[in-house]
Each structure stands twice: as C-alpha cells, then as structure tokens.
Specification:
Number of helices of chain A: 15
CATH topology of chain A: TIM Barrel
Distance between the termini of chain A: 33 Å
Radius of gyration of chain A: 22 Å
Largest interface: A-B, 78 and 78 residues
Shape of chain A: globular
CATH class of chain A: Alpha Beta
Structural class of chain A: alpha/beta
Oligomer: homodimer
Number of domains of chain A: 1
Strand content of chain A: 5-15%
Order of helices and strands of chain A: EHEHEHEHHEEEEEHEHEHHHHEHEHHH
CATH architecture of chain A: Alpha-Beta Barrel
Strand order of the largest sheet of chain A: 1-2-3-4-9-10-11-13
C-alpha cells in the first residue's frame, strides 16, 4: 500500500568518529577504525535498520593540517560506498564529487556503475571544492573563483546528464540468434561542446536503474542557491533557527519554480546534530562532555581557516574582530559558512572562545540536546512549519549517537506517522519521491 | 610453513561473458549479467576457490561501435572491485587506470582506499590508453603520441608513489589523552613539480597495508618494455610461441636488471586461453563451437581497427594486404598488437578470413585446447623453460571456462607441486612474492 501522507526524510551524514571535532577523543569512539570498511558497513546497516533514505559522505582532495587534532574524512567515496552497497539492500548511497577537479566522463561512469551495483541507490552530492590547497594537488596554482566554478559546475552536470541519457532503455538487444548485442541506433553520442568541456560520448555503461543518481547540493551562497534550484533534488543546508530555515526553504522552492520545477521535486534537509538522552540533563551532559574534549589550538586554527584571518593573534576571550575580517566576496570556498559565523558572532556578541565552542560540535549546524520526545518535537515542528522536508542527520559521536537516534528517536517519529516503518521502494529516487522525468522536462 | 619452491602464479582476466568475441552468443553465456555485480562476485569467488593470485579487469574510457556485436567491458573498475572485495578474503584485485586521462591525486587515493578496504589486495594495471576516440571524451582533439604518453606515465607513477609514501607507518598517533591524532612531522608533502604534473600533496589517506598496490604493466612495444622493466612488478604479455615467450621473458628481466632491479621482482604472465575438455576432441569442439558463432562483419571491423585500415574493401578470402598497411610507428595505441597481427599474417601467409578466425578467440593471445593433463603440461613447460612465471588466464567463455579450469586443471597443477594448495599470505604482494622495498631501493 502506497503512503500518500507526506513523510520526513532522513539522510545520515557519516563522518569518521562523529561530527563533533573532538569526538575521536571520547572513550566510546574508535578512531583506529577510520580506514576500516567494516566500521562504515556497520554504520550503514544501522541506518538501514532505521529505514533512512540514504547515507552520505563528504570528500576532500587535500589533507588539512588540522589532521593533527582530528580524524579527517578518509577513504575514497566510490570504493567505500560500493563496498557498503555489497552488504546493504535498500539504503541510498550518496557520494560527493567535485565538478572543479574531475572529468565528466569519469564521473558519469562511476555513478552509472555504483547505480548498477547498488540496484539504483546512488546519489551525487555536487560540490565545486574549496581552497588553493586543493588546486595545488591538481597542477594548478589557485582555486577557480566562485562564479567560474559554478559556471563550470553547471556545464559539467549538463555533460554527465547527456552521457547518462546516451543509452535508451531498450538499447540492449542481446539477440544471440542474430548476433546483435546492442542497437547502435539507440545509443546516442553526447556530442557536447561547451566552454569548459568537449565530450563526444557515448557512455560505455548501459543505462542504470535510476538513469541519473539523485542530485544533491549543499552550497548556500547566492550562486549555490541558484545552482540548487536549477539542478538539485536534495539540498543540504546549515540552518540555526526555525525562522531562517523557513525563509531558506521558501527561497529555494521559489527559485526552483522559476526554473519550471515543481517544489515537491526538491527536498530541503537542514543539518541536525542531536544529543539524545533519557533525560534532558543526560543529553546536555553528553554535549558538555564532548565540548570539554575540544583542543583549543585546533579550534583557533579552524576558526582562522573559516574566517581567513589568523585568530591566534587576538585574545581568546576578546571579541571576534569583525571589522578586521575580509569581506565575504574575498572568501575562496565556503562563503556561506563564513557569513554564518560572522552573523552568529555579531548577533550574540561572542568572544573568540565562545564562537569556537558554538561551532565545535558541527561547524555551525543546528544542534539540539534533549529526550527522544523533545527531539521528535523539534523535528516535527520544523517539518510541519515549512522549514524542512527532512534532515541531514549528523551524530556528534559515532556509532553510539546513531544507535541512540535509531533505537530511541526513530520509533517516536514513526509513532507520529511522519516517518516510514518500512521501505516501500527499492531505489533512492523512490525513497525520496523525486523522479528523473521531472529533470528532463525542464530542459 | 613457507614454501620455498618456485610457484606458478595465476591471474584471472575477467571479461564479461568470456574472451572469445562471440562468447555471449553461446547457450551457456549470460550476457544480461554484464552489469550485475553478483555475476562478477561469483567469478571472483570461484577464482579464490582456485587459490589464484588475483583477478583483473581491463577498462576503457570510450564506447566502441563494436558493441553492436559483442559485450564490451562495462562497469567502472574501482566500484566493481570494491564490491568484490566485500565478498572475498584473499584474492588480489587489479584495476586498470590510465596515466593519460587521470589525475595522480585521484588515482593515489583510489588505490589507497581499495587497498585499505581489501586488506592489502590492490593491484594497478598501468595503461596509457589508445585512440583519438578516448581523447575526444576528455576535451582533447587527439590522443598523445606514444612516446609522450610514456613520458607522462612515468612521471605519473612517480607522483603517486610520492603520495603513497607521504604517510609513514607511524604517522598516526591517535592519543586521546593529549588530543594528538596525527604527527605532522611524519606526514610529508609530495612536493612534486615535473613537466606534466605539479602536486603539492600529502595524500589524505593514511598508508595502506601494501603501501603501493602491485604495479602491473602490459605494453609490449619498445617503450612499453622499458616502462615495465623500470616500474612493473607484473607484466601481462601476448606470446604465441614458446620461443618468442622465452625471448621476451629474458629481454624484460635483463632490462629490469639494468634498472638495478632483481629479476625475481618482476613476474611475467603471458595471456593464456584454455579450452578444457575431458578428451582432446571435446576441447577442440568447444573451440570450434565458439569460432562458428563469430560474426564476420564484426571480425572485419575489429581487424580494421587493429590494422588501422578498412579491411571491408578487400576480398575476405584474399591475402592480408600487408604492403598497404600503415607502418607500426603510425599506429596510435596498441602498436605491439598491430605488429603481432602483421607477423602472424606474414609468417603463415593468412587470408583476411583466416586472420580474423585466428584472432577472434582472444585478440592474438596463446590459445590451447586439450585435456587437463595436456594443459598442465603446456603450462608447466612454459613455466620451467623460462618463458613465464605464471599466466594471465583468459577463459574464452565465462563462467564455465573458469569453472572447468578451477575444478580440472588446477588440481593437476597442484599435484605437480608447482601451484599453491592454500594461500600462505594475506596480501597480493605476499601471493606474488614482490615487495615494495625493492621498488624503493632502486630510486
């Protein structure tokens, strides 16, 4: 029986030992497992027991110095997700891949392959990467500027779509008798010539179960929002307050309509960092325990990276030097995060130390400590207020934070009838209710 | 107890429904399974039951028109091998990756990740790709010439080695107490600036079990042999006769010595296409049956591709027009294969039809039909005559050709004491007896 009631979507954002920067220092953390496939397979299986839509991994093409004080996401996304696909059946698998440092032909193949291997569970978090340090790993001197990256990104997505479309559903004839394997008339070259790419095509992998992986986007800058509205089916976003989230939600859905898209075809998932306790006090204790494990030298370094200004030169308990920061347009990379930090510091008049603590738990994402009922209340409120179609779950400490959420919060959401008790579909598109035809129509 | 006796190595070269171009038309073939992960997982598990060193997959970044008449290798190598890693324990996993159309930073990450996921079973078949059709999928007009490709390839390998070496074995401190995760003093940037690449490094994945995947090479041109002698630990090669194989074997091992390498550290594995029958007649019937399934239009097309001359303009039963072919130096791509075909046609004075049939079963690789004892005799003879350290097994029809080999030929090799009855090591390097230190010493 098909559910008609609007359902909340949950994506698990997997980050080594958890999203709190100090999570690896916690007694329950297993930082030695950061390169162990079994560790990630188990997390995915737990999320699948929780009937979540998908798991997702960030990916960077550089090693930050901050590895000194924390576990940096490791392992390459496609190999990791493919090994996870082999031990799961339903959960979606979303890989991050950058349009700035990849070739469309390779990316189209990888997603087609992952989609075949997983039976239609692939998702693509489209990023444009950040920082000159990445550029220098790819024979370039500096990172492309914000606008140019998005232009290239848009073209990149167009090319890979053409490649995924190069095979029709009935291109494979496989007639042993006549000796015809494929119908060349039903395989179309991409024949793309643009400003950034020229790709003849066709793809050398037949059409995969979903045709396109689910397209995911997380940029929250102006360029990022336009990109998401035009192309994305899932949007990850950082939202601190219900009001801001409602405004963002309306903004992106309106922009999507401008591109001729239905608002239902784009799902907005704010990041959410839960501390789950049997009592509110226990939940708060869990949060405090992790915050106390933060290394202050590390916090200063991260804040300096985000604000692109050396914060170690200012007193830790003095105000954030807002007047001495670069302007947002000078920021290479995550402009939206920069703006978020600046707004937070200004609004709450924070010291440097306070800003570090406020962002340590998840880089500015919405954090909430409470009982399962309190957490479900918050999620339901956001969901019903037009602030979210679901959440990008970012447990501060893994695997225990995920276990707690799955065993305690999810049954509460299910009792309220806003979250599935069983998977109804097989593909990630079916879980999310987004269809590839709607992406085609708009072109 | 460690074996000291020299052992024969076997690599399974997996090719969709088999290496015979018409294999997919055979009643026992399952061409619908070419994008099914279960199909490949089962093949790998069978090879693992046969205690083979590794499985290997070719990979191309373009779709040839010949897909009309045959199953072209499909699925992307890393996603495929990673999903296979998840259901196997010991067998090596060798992926093909081109140095012409990739970035070293990505390739270094992928292999490090696959090596972690598989517990040290990764191998890298280093290729430089072929043909302008590939170039046109990567925003280039034409393929780089032979020499330039190998120059770039050499530099590429140097960069990825530096990246794999950027982490020492004890770079990870993981001291929860002090909050030190990694020792920055023990992570070294690649700091590479060459003609083709400039890569700052370091890698963002800690040192993997094998440090480097086993390096494999298959070029048999002059440039290819030098490249192999300098860098490869396993060489796949096309050899028709015992004499040629002995000469090639000695040639590559001598060249390796020139680079200060031990001859034992480079394993030569000629391709071998077995038709296994309980009687010799049955084996020959199997071969004839497949040859009769060949589509002649397809054979002409493939031959035209290899010879880079349109063969459809010549009479099928007339001689191969040797005088009208381009010279080997004009061939873009597989020069060694071109030379092999020309030599074969000249030596045996073949018609076009005859040359097509001779190469249909495996693109010129050594083919042998016989009983398990006869096959073991041939393999043993090559192995003991200094023609081979083992073989790159290319079953003409899959999975049955592999099943036959594993259940009938392998026990025969084991009885002769030249092939393992159980894995002794865990990593592909241990299976092959090649060590990463010897690669380091020579630099």
């Amino acid at each position: 029986m098909s559910q008609t009631k609007r359902q909340l979507h949950l994506n698990l954002f997997i980050m080594s030992t958890g999203h709190h920067e100090a999570s690896w220092r916690h007694p329950d953390a297993s930082p030695h497992m950061a390169t162990s496939i079994e560790y990630y397979q188990k997390l995915a299986q737990t999320a699948e027991r929780g009937k979540m839509d998908s798991i997702f991994l960030a990916e960077k093409y550089r090693l930050p110095k901050s590895i000194q004080h924390r576990v940096i996401p490791q392992m390459e996304a496609f190999t990791l997700l493919s090994a996870i696909a082999a031990v799961t059946k339903r959960i979606g698998l979303t890989a991050t891949a950058s349009t700035t440092y990849n070739e469309p032909y390779h990316i189209a193949r990888k997603f087609a392959s992952l989609d075949h291997i997983s039976g239609g569970r692939a998702g693509w978090n489209i990023v444009t990467s950040t920082g000159d340090a990445t550029a220098r790993n790819f024979s370039r001197e500096e990172h492309m500027d914000h606008r140019a990256r998005y232009d290239r990104g848009r073209e990149f997505v167009e090319v890979v779509k053409r490649l995924w479309d190069s095979w029709q559903e009935d291109s494979l004839v496989i007639d042993k008798e006549s000796g015809i394997y494929a119908d060349l008339g039903k395989i179309q070259a991409a024949d793309f010539k643009g400003e950034h790419f020229s790709v003849r095509g066709a793809l050398n992998i037949p059409r995969s179960p979903q045709t396109y992986p689910v397209l995911v986007q997380a940029g929250s800058s102006e360029d990022g929002k336009e990109f998401a509205a035009e192309l994305a089916e899932v949007v990850f976003t950082v939202q601190h307050t219900l009001e801001d989230a409602i405004a963002f939600y309306a903004d992106v859905k309106n922009r999507a309509r401008k591109y001729g898209r239905s608002a239902e075809q784009i799902k907005i998932l704010p990041g959410f960092i839960p501390y789950v306790g049997d009592t509110e006090a226990e939940a708060r204790d869990k949060e405090r325990e992790l915050n106390e494990l933060s290394v202050s030298a590390y916090g200063i370094q991260c804040l300096s990276d985000t604000l692109q200004k050396d914060m170690s030169k200012y007193p830790l308990d003095g105000p954030v030097p807002l007047d001495e920061l670069p302007s947002v347009h000078e920021i290479k990379g995550q402009q939206a995060r920069f703006q978020l930090y600046v707004d937070l510091a200004r609004r709450e008049n924070l010291t440097i130390r306070e800003l570090i603590i406020r962002t340590a738990g998840g880089r500015g994402h919405f954090t909430f400590a409470g009982t399962p009922v309190q957490i479900a209340d918050v999620l339901e409120k956001w969901f019903r207020s037009g602030a979210a179609d679901g959440f990008n779950l970012m447990p501060p400490l893994l695997p225990v934070g995920l276990d707690d959420f799955v065993t305690k919060v999810i049954p509460e959401l299910q009792n309220r009838g806003i979250y599935r008790t069983e998977y109804e579909g097989r593909t990630l598109r079916e879980h999310l209710g987004v269809d590839v035809e709607s992406l085609h129509q708009k072109v």
